[in-house]
Amino acid sequence: MGINKRIAVVSLLILSFLVMLPGLAREETKWIRNPDVVYVGTPYDVVSKMLQMADVKKKDVVYDLGCGDGRMVVLAAQKYGCRAVGYEIDPERVGASLDNVARNGVEKLVKIIQADIFTVDLRKATVIPLYLLPEMNRKLIPQIDKMKPGSRIVCHNYDLDGIIPDETVTIVSNEDNYSHTLWLYTTPLKRKQ
Ligand SMILES: C[S@@+](CC[C@H](N)C(=O)[O-])C[C@H]1O[C@@H](n2cnc3c(N)ncnc32)[C@H](O)[C@@H]1O
């Protein structure tokens, strides 16, 4: 092999290693099981409204269950300076969330954890913005019941079945021009009779 070819091969190996570095620095994410719902991001102006309805403060701890690309937890940390944790089952979305956190420099406030949301202990969270399917929301109620009194849950497009909301708001997003309905709940949850 000529000297030029050898240099080209070594350069390529170094380049490949550098490209792999960010992945190596992360905890390995594997396929746990199929997600219960596909990824659809909440438009940013709707995320802002959800956090505003929850009256997020610096001392809050925001959990996004099924965090997608991490937009809710990143925005919560950026806007309110609070801590936030994004839980996500899909390894590709976990990677996108980690990239989002790094891109926005909020690593000190935001954690991204690969997990099935139905196994997560919610007792340390004080605010949960939710964008999931109705049966998933219903399945989460026993976990939400364990949250501290005064914790807030804001649901996007699908409410918490059988629970009385404190507030219901419908907004039209500037991003997709669709109407989005949001429900605010406070713990302890108020059951419909
Ligand atoms: C509709 S998207 C919402 C994304 C983000 N919360 C937002 O509003 O922009 C739902 C997300 O939940 C994730 N997901 C589905 N089932 C899950 C499960 N059992 N545990 C954790 N994440 C799950 C999907 O991979 C997807 O990224």
Class inferred from helices and paired strands: alpha/beta
Number of domains: 1
Say what oligomer this is: single chain
- What are the segments in which pLDDT stays under 50 over at least 5 consecutive residues? 7-25
CATH fold assignment: Rossmann fold
> What percentage of amino acids are in beta strands?
15-25%
* Rg over C-alpha atoms, rounded to the nearest angstrom: 20 Å
Largest sheet: 4 strands, mixed
Mean pLDDT: 90
- In helices, the fraction of residues equals 25-40%
CATH architect. name: 3-Layer(aba) Sandwich
Q: List bound small molecules.
A: S-adenosylmethionine
The 3D shape can be described as globular
- Strand arrangement within the widest β-sheet reads 4-5-7-6
- Helix count? 5
Specify the CATH class: Alpha Beta
List SSEs in N-to-C order: HHEHEHEEHEEE
Furnish the topology, listing elements before pairings.
Blueprint: H1 3-25, H2 44-53, E1 61-65, H3 71-80, E2 83-88, H4 91-103, E3 110-114, E4 127-130, H5 134-144, E5 152-156, E6 167-172, E7 179-186
Parallel strand pairs: 1-2, 2-3, 4-5
Antiparallel strand pairs: 5-7, 6-7
The chain binds S-adenosylmethionine (SAM).
The site of S-adenosylmethionine has 23 residues, from α3 and β2.
Please tag this protein with its features:
193 residues, three-stranded parallel beta sheet, 20% strand, 7 strands, alpha/beta, binds S-adenosylmethionine, Rossmann fold
